[in-house]
Amino acid sequence: MRVKVRIPTPLLSLTGGKKEVIAEGATLKEVIEDLERQFPGMKERLCDEEGNLRRFINFFVNDEDVRFLEGENTPLKEGDIVSIVPAIAGGS
């Protein structure tokens, strides 16, 4: 499945400044593997040493948080939009 992936500002250096890229995969995990193939270094920013999604990065598929779906095994279909959103902390 081809999906559109929205890239956050901190990762733009890996994509050559592209804010949206196309990746392929039937699950979020497969899309991350394809992103790594296209943009080396991407996976280590998105996944921890065990290959699990990093806690401080949120992933959305069509505006739905994958934590409430099937996590990295969330199924994708052609034309879905995957958004990568770094967590924001702080404030007063």
Question: What would your notes on this structure say?
Answer:
With 92 residues, this protein is of the alpha+beta class. It has a single domain, classed as Beta-grasp domain (Ubiquitin-like (UB roll)). Helix content is 17%, strand content 25%. The chain contains two helices and five strands, in the order E-E-H-H-E-E-E. A five-stranded mixed β-sheet has the order 2-1-5-3-4, with helices on one face. The protein is globular, with a radius of gyration of 12 Å. The protein starts with a strand and ends in a 6-residue tail after the last strand. The mean pLDDT is 95.
Characteristics:
single chain, 92 residues, alpha+beta, Ubiquitin-like (UB roll), five-stranded mixed sheet, 17% helix, 25% strand, globular
Widest sheet: strand order? Answer: 2-1-5-3-4
Q: What does the radius of gyration come to?
A: 12 Å
CATH superfamily: Beta-grasp domain
Report the uncertain regions: none
Let me know the number of strands: 5
Shape: globular
The profile of the biggest β sheet is: 5 strands, mixed
Class computed from helices, strands and strand pairing = alpha+beta
* Count of helical regions: 2
Q: Percent helix among the residues? A: 10-25%
CATH topology: Ubiquitin-like (UB roll)
Could you outline the blueprint of secondary structure elements for this entry?
Elements: E1 2-6, E2 20-24, H1 28-38, H2 42-46, E3 57-61, E4 64-65, E5 81-86
Parallel strand pairs: 1-5
Antiparallel strand pairs: 1-2, 3-4, 3-5
